[in-house]
Amino acid sequence: METSDNSSKLINNALLSIFSFLILAGIMLIVRSEMVYKDSYELTKNVLAATQNKMNSGQLPNYSGIKDGYSQALSFFILAFGCIIVMLLLPRLQAFTISPTGGVSVTLQNLQQNVNSLMQQTNTLQATSTGVGGIKPSEKITEVATGNLENASLFAKNKNDPQKGKCGGKKTDNDRRISASVSETSAAGLFKVLLTVESTNTNNPMSGIVKFHLHPTFSNPNPIIAVRNGKAVLELGKVYGAFTVTAEMDNGKTCLELDLSELPDAPNDFKLR
Questions:
Q1: Which of 10, 218, 251, 19 is nearest to 127 (CA)?
Q2: Cα Rg for the chain, rounded, in angstroms?
Q3: Could you read off the pLDDT of 206-262 as tens digits, one per residue?
């Protein structure tokens, strides 16, 4: 461990020296280009003041030299910036390899673990933001039975299933499948729904994100879930009743649909609409 720390310090010191040299060289090039510019400017004034017969190619200002000077200075500054980036990443560097074909591979310590953790936190936030939603079948029946027409109209509106048929009723397509499980919660009248989108072909795994579209009664009816371990899983913890959910993936090339009222193992109270 001590040997590794000493090596890191030596590399950092070398990079710092290179960075300082590159910055100094860049500044010197800029100063030199500025001098060339001033000389060219004075030469141009003299040429314009002279008669046309006195002009020759040797008197014309060399503006290409100015351009080259600034271009080289920019290159030095870019290299210096690269040294700083390497110095910052060095403590987290796990592996650095150069292939015979000229490719460079850099692996940072715990990078994948940190990315997975961030994806999980984002998915949890998306799931939590959905809030409470779904159709309330028992309340709808009660309001209609008691003659409360205003509330009956409200529940009739909630009965509308806007996602129904948007993906042609397809539960599987393009090596993708959507499924769900429903279970009761400790809160009366609320259910937990676990939605899963996954690949049905190991040679065509899932990646990226999945856009779910839920019933409009949810606070966030369009949660976006990142694919982790080949699946996109959305847990809805507070659902009143069944509705149709759709899911988009593969940059919009695949659209799946699932009517939760058709789940054979779901509780009857949940499926009743």
A1: 218
A2: 33
A3: 998 999 999 999 999 999 999 988 999 999 999 999 999 999 999 999 999 999 999
pTM for this one? 0.56
Helices (H) and strands (E) in the chain, counts: 6, 10
Q: How many other C-beta atoms lie within 10 A of the C-beta of residue 135? A: 24
Element (H, E) at 267: none
pLDDT in tens, 29-47: 666 666 766 666 666 666 5
Parallel, antiparallel or unpaired: strands 191-199 and 176-184: antiparallel
- Residue showing tokens 């899932």: 206
- With H, G, I as helix, E, B as strand and everything else as coil, classify residue 87: helix
Q: Where are the beta strands (DSSP E) in 17-159?
A: 93-98, 104-108
Residues contacting 115, CB < 8 A, separation 6+: none
Question: In whole angstroms, what separates CA 178 from the centre of its chain?
Answer: 22
CATH T-level fold of 115-271: Immunoglobulin-like (2.60.40)
Q: CB atoms < 10 A from the CB of 22, how many?
A: 20
